[in-house]
Here is the input.
Amino acid sequence: MTGLEKGIPLQQLRRDKRLDPEQRMRLDAAIHMQGRGWVTGRDGARPWTLSRTNRVLSCLGALVILLLASPLLIGLALAIKRTSAGPVLFVQKRTGYRGRVFGMFKFRTMVTNAEELKESLRYLNKHGADAIDFKIDNDPRITGIGGFLRRTSLDELPNLINVVTGDMRLVGPRPTSFNACRYKDNHLARLSIYPGMTGLWQISGRSNIDFDQRVELDLSYIAEQSLLLDLKILLKTPFKVFSGHGAS
Here is the structure.
């Protein structure tokens, strides 16, 4: 029931651009431990976003949500399978912690040849044809049920699998579909923590803001990171998501 983006073999998901010496130098120059230890307050100690407590709580939270939402997940899977040809899930190559590439699980919302059509539609990119981020209003590649899944962000529920496996956290910067080698130097600091299912971007405008503005929000989150801030973001997320504000 799973599928891969067209033209992206599994072995490519395992390649790590950080191993390139020049790219690793860029990352090391931009990435550093942010803030203080979340328990001791000591400089250089493990901050909240990289703490084992965050990892454990995120994993447990994801497992609970998966269990509670299992009837919904099964229903959505059946609806996708019955209304469009292709797999129910697909694995999308995303850039995460320290530029590591991983496969992110999502419900399929597009036609199976969506990647092949991407370049022909780049002129419709709402952030500009040459922008690093790629978003299209009323994307013609989206299936009928895919539009509903995107407006409500239900297509992202399978991200919970990535939280359980450790590639993501419940809260953090949204992982990008482009590699870290395409980041500008001032963007790289957002890779100093694990990506999340939700964050300040989702509750502050979502896809209505460009990548530079997203980075500003991500760096603000990194600077202010705490368990309390994560709880506030998690509580606000459902209201923003289900309102459909900024979704695409």
